[in-house]
Amino acid sequence: MFCFPKDPSVSHDFTTDTSDPTPFRGDNHGTECAGVVAMSKNTLCGIGVAFDSKIGGIKINIEESMDVFEARALGYQQSSVDVYSNSWGPKDNGYTVEGPGRLVSKTLQSGAEKGRDGKGNVFVWAAGNGGDKFDSCAADGYVNSIYTIAVGSADQDGRQAYYDEDCSAKMAVTFSHNSRPTGPQVYTTTLDGRCTSGFTGTSASAPLLSGVIALALQANPDLTWRDVQYLIVYTSNIDILTVDDLATNGAGLKFSHHFGFGAIDAEALVTRARHWTSVPQQLNFTIPATQFECMISNGSTCELEFQFTSELGANISSLEHVLVSLSLSIVPTANDSLWNLTDYYEAEKDGEAGDWLQSPHPRRGDVEIELTSPAGTRSILLPNRDYDFVNTEGYDNWPFMSVHFWGEDPTGTWTLRTTFRASSGSVFITNVTLTGFGIAEGVSGNSNRGLCQNCLRGCGDVCDVCSELRLNYSLACVSTCPNATIEYNGYCIAGSVIYPETPTGNSADGTTTVILVSVAAVVVVTLFVVVLVVLVVVLVTRKRRKDRFSTTTTATNVYWSLPDIDDNDDETVQI
Hints:
single chain, 575 residues, alpha+beta, Rossmann fold, disordered C terminus, hydrolase, P_dom, serine protease, Galactose-bd-like_sf, Proprotein convertase subtilisin/kexin type 4
């Protein structure tokens, strides 16, 4: 039997109006997600990224999962919850366009601005598993919110998982896929008390990142929701990934449409979090395209320029998120067939290229939108979606968000370019606005003074990764361990150390490994080590619509809290 403390105060079943969100038998998805984070430190199946956790849960009815129910779930106990980890969303079929309703949008904003005693709730979101259907998280409105952190998936060799979706809103990736035929996926647990080595998808990435964020908040409870996003931007490691679209923005930050700013580096993120100074107040500006309308057809392109000057009054010199909102409709010709979401479209691959569906009719998936900053950084806001054959619906005031301009100065000319590759029909674009969020002064990674001797990788005075050893109690880099410390797993640990144990109990393959964090509860392993060796467990149910490598159909949200390391209040996280 797996052990974990429960927290009824942050649990609720909205289908029965009780505090018991126990999932239905066989509904393993939520348990698998929670397991990546919260399994207790024992010998049964492994150890969670944020172990010794208190667990809670929220359950709603999948058939009634509408705006009001989602808002109640995401807003439940916002003052007590630190991180909401969401492994759900719109369908990953390549042609669905869906986002949060008005109430959910307000709930996300309220949580970020008022939750956690004003420091803000952190909302982590799985980027989606429709990559093999040419889907893009640009069509997922939950991911495109500035208040959420979209995380994708990489395999054991640092390549993009075959199901992972591209979009400009994705911030980073974690390991959650093993592409080798005989290799395990992410180890976690199931409802029947067994270990499984088959959990995969971005559903696994979201709780892994949530666990790392929980440790960062444990190390520095004063971090705001925006601080957490800055930490991801400045500590993620893109150099260990296989990137075919690597670019560097005007602020010197490397990024990719596949991987965001790179792989989550747990050690670097938590290390820098301990010494992080909160970023200044967020500012914003909006530039409307006054009376702008554009009709494009037959492979043509429409360009729109936005001019940002100091007269706008925003005083922003360093960007965070950039958001383009627009309405777009497909205008078929008289001879074109109409296709909506309930139709099934059968077509052949496009001959020689073999990478998109050839359609004789105009469709929404033939539209591509890209934004270029004054610094020349190019971000694809909407790639072609080759399975999106719909032409009776477009995008209605849709927010396309990009993190690729992070740190850039917005001053100058922005260019929005829309291309329609269909051979018939047209696209009509209107209601275009560009909104930027940022700060008056740039942040270059903040400072960890005095920690940078013997440093392998860092930023200024910040040492994210030591070249040899690290003191677990001060995080300083050293070449040898001092007296009264024990060298273990790259750390010098004061006092006794717990070595890996062979788990007992029911394991899917009988060979699982437990690796330990330092006794100060600061994570000591980086991305690809964490997931390959960490096993976890909890009892929860899942949420709705998005089949992120799960066949279950009920609701899921999970909370947990962490033990203190600095005599601060417990941190609480929700899945």
